[in-house]
Amino acid sequence: MKVEIYSDIACPWCYIGKRRFDQALARFDGEVEVVYRPYQLVPDAPATASPHRAWLAERYGPQSRAMDDRVTELGRAEEITFDFDAALHANTFLGHRLLHLAEAEYGPAAQGALKEALLKAHFTDGVDVGDRAALTEVAVAAGLDRQRVTEYLAGEEGADEVRHQLDTARQLGISAVPTFVFEGRWAVQGGQEADTFLQVLNQVAAETTAEAAASEVGSADVDGTGACADGSCAV
C-alpha cells in the first residue's frame, strides 16, 4: 500500500498527525510505503525568519495564544515538545526541497526520518528551517551526505519538482494539512487518532485485496476525489 502525506514543516497538526499515523503503522499488519509530499501553508513567508508568537498574533489576534496552548497540550500526549516561544516563522520551501532529495536519493524511510527531524527542529529546537546552513545540519544529523546537501541547497536542483508537487496538491483540491492519500484514491484530512488511521489502513487493504481478486471485471475508477472528513473515510 502507498500513502502520500501532504504536509508542511511549519504545521503543528502535521507533527501530531505524523506521530499518530506512525502509531497506526506499528499496529498494522501489512507493508506500507509512506511518502511525504509538500504543502505550504504560507507560501509567501519571507526568507528572513521572525518570532512565531508575533507572527501568529498578527494573523489571528488574541486567540493565537490559546491556539498554541491547545496544540502544546495535545502534543504532550504524543511525546512532542512544542516550544512556541522559541519557534520561528520561516519559509519552508527549502525544507521541502530537502525532503524531495531524501526521497529521490535515499528512499521513503530516510525521507520519513528527515521529516521527523525537521518538525522537531522547527517546533522544539527553534531552528530556522528556512536557513541553508541550519537545514544542512539537520539533514546531516538525519543521515544525508553533507557535501551533497550543501551543493543541492546552493543551487536550484529539485525546485521545479517541488513546485510541480505543490501544484498537484492544489489540483487535487487539498486546502488543509495534513492530508493522507491512500493508494492515490482515498483521502483522510487532519491529525486523526491512531485508531482512526488504523481503521482506514485496514479498510483500504481490504478494498484493494477485494479488487485484486475480482480483477477480471475491471478495476475501479481513480479520480482522487474520495475525501474523508471528521475522521470517517468513505472507502
Automatic annotation (TrEMBL):
<dbReference type="InterPro" id="IPR036249">
    <property type="entry name" value="Thioredoxin-like_sf"/>
</dbReference>
<dbReference type="Pfam" id="PF01323">
    <property type="entry name" value="DSBA"/>
</dbReference>
<keyword id="KW-0413">Isomerase</keyword>
<dbReference type="InterPro" id="IPR001853">
    <property type="entry name" value="DSBA-like_thioredoxin_dom"/>
</dbReference>
<feature type="domain" description="DSBA-like thioredoxin">
    <location>
        <begin position="3"/>
        <end position="201"/>
    </location>
</feature>
<dbReference type="GO" id="GO:0016853">
    <property type="term" value="F:isomerase activity"/>
</dbReference>
<protein>
    <submittedName>
        <fullName>Putative DsbA family dithiol-disulfide isomerase</fullName>
    </submittedName>
</protein>
<dbReference type="GO" id="GO:0016491">
    <property type="term" value="F:oxidoreductase activity"/>
</dbReference>
